[in-house]
UniProtKB/TrEMBL annotation:
<dbReference type="Pfam" id="PF03692">
    <property type="entry name" value="CxxCxxCC"/>
</dbReference>
<protein>
    <submittedName>
        <fullName>Putative zinc- or iron-chelating domain containing protein</fullName>
    </submittedName>
</protein>
<dbReference type="InterPro" id="IPR005358">
    <property type="entry name" value="Puta_zinc/iron-chelating_dom"/>
</dbReference>
Amino acid sequence: MDARLKTLDIIYSVHEARMADNNLACAKGCATCCTRNVTLTTLEGRRLFDWINREAPHLMEGVRQEAEKPRQIPTYTINGLTDMCMAGDDVPEEPSDPGWGACPLLSEEGLCQAYEARPFACRSMVSQSRCETGGFAEMDEMTLTVNNVLMQYIEHTDDKGITGNLTDILLLLENEDNRTTHEAETLTPPNEAFVANRPAQVLMVPPPHRDAVGAMMQEIQAQKG
């Protein structure tokens, strides 16, 4: 488990360094993308849950109080999506409405109360323009590739785990038996709110981005040692 969490932290660090070179409009208090529809792996959930449990345990009460509200429920993972695309299968739609409300970890002032341990979906939602102006995030193609590849790598690292909505994953990991089962790599989806993770069979990298992504992956491996 420690090795998997170390890999996750390295991925977060490498991504942060790469995004620092971009001209991003994201700033403190910008929370248009902070909806109830964030999904994550159990590995990311464990990093987030442990931080909340240690630094801000009161946040779990907010998660529990909003557990009945609608939110995006994933039916496939990023590696599952890749497998479907490679096989030429149709990709099913997943209902996701930003009007369902804000993330349960967002403060009334529009600040993430668990920013230090936020999952990759939050870290990767960057934009070159203010989202509230255009209604969507503006990313260049290289950023999209980097985000997809690192999301695949995170799932690959947690390939014996599961993926779910942030609310559902946190509530799942609140149970010590589930945390123990995840550490033993024997956790399976307990219901239809979750989907099993998959190893990455192929990375989604367009030919023009292969050299840059290859160098990034080598950097991650070097840091892993």
